Amino acid sequence: MANINDAPPLEVDGLVKRYGRSLAVDGLSFRVSAGEIVGLVGPNGAGKTTVLRCCVGILRPSAGAVRVCGHDSVAAPNEARQQMAFVPELPSLYPLLTVAEQIEFIARSYGPLADDFAERREAMLRRFDLWPQRAKLTDSLSKGMRQKTALVAAFLHGAQVILLDEPLIGVDPAGIRQLKDLLLEARAGGAAIVVSTHLLDTAERLCDRILVLQAGRKRAEGSLADLRAAAAGFGEATLEELFMELTRDE
Q1: How far apart are CA 29 and CA 40, in angstroms?
Q2: What is the DSSP letter of 133?
Q3: pLDDT per residue over 110-166, tens digit each?
């Protein structure tokens, strides 16, 4: 389904998420434009994974709204999910499906397979060095191969919004390089991408904009130049140095 009235691919408006008395996300708002990679960074427990799960519809917001291509994630969940691809930190794969079957299963969840699906799947499996494992059960794969299988399934969809939670954890150097290239290609194709990561040097090189979370709140948002300007005396600072300054205890 097409974008509603040219709405932003991803819009988070006043998002609040509570777990009982615990406040995990506190009034967070941000947008991601087409052709943009946003890095979501923060200390452990900052709320990064909760934000992504609310965006994809796994968790229901306690307050606020998430809109995907104009579709509200609560009022129109199916329409919102059709526009998204999500790879969690620990992908849940069906243990009795082969790698090839897993990817086809995910593809079919979005609708009928495209005529060139088999060719594109083969190309992507070869790209991530998974072609020799295509007939293996996913339950027999290493953590890195499971992660790469989930990434292949996500990128084959051609989603307008791509959400990745710590996608580089457990992936070998060649796979990391392929993923970075895929992200840049998806950005060039107009996808809106959010990457949650602890790898600040990677976020600095890859992302157009950084959103710094702490205790469920936005501490800073912008390009590296914007973050440097917001932190007095940090004109040439790396993202790691800025992160330590922005998230230090007052």
Answers
A1: 13
A2: G
A3: 888 999 999 999 999 999 999 999 999 999 999 999 999 999 999 998 899 999 999
User: Given 3.40.50.300, 3.10.129.10, 3.40.630.30, 3.30.457.10, which CATH number is that of 10-246?
Assistant: 3.40.50.300
Backbone phi, then psi, for 86, in 5-degree steps? -135, 130
Domain locations in the chain as residue ranges:
10-246
Band (pLDDT 50/70/90 cuts) for residue 228 is: confident
- DSSP for 7-48, written as a single string: --SEEEEEEEEEETTEEEEEEEEEEE-TTEEEEEE-STTSSH
**pLDDT at residue 58, as a whole number:** 94
* H or E, element range at 68: strand 63-68
Instruction: For the beta carbon of residue 75, count every other beta carbon within 10 angstroms.
Output: 10
DSSP character at residue 3: P
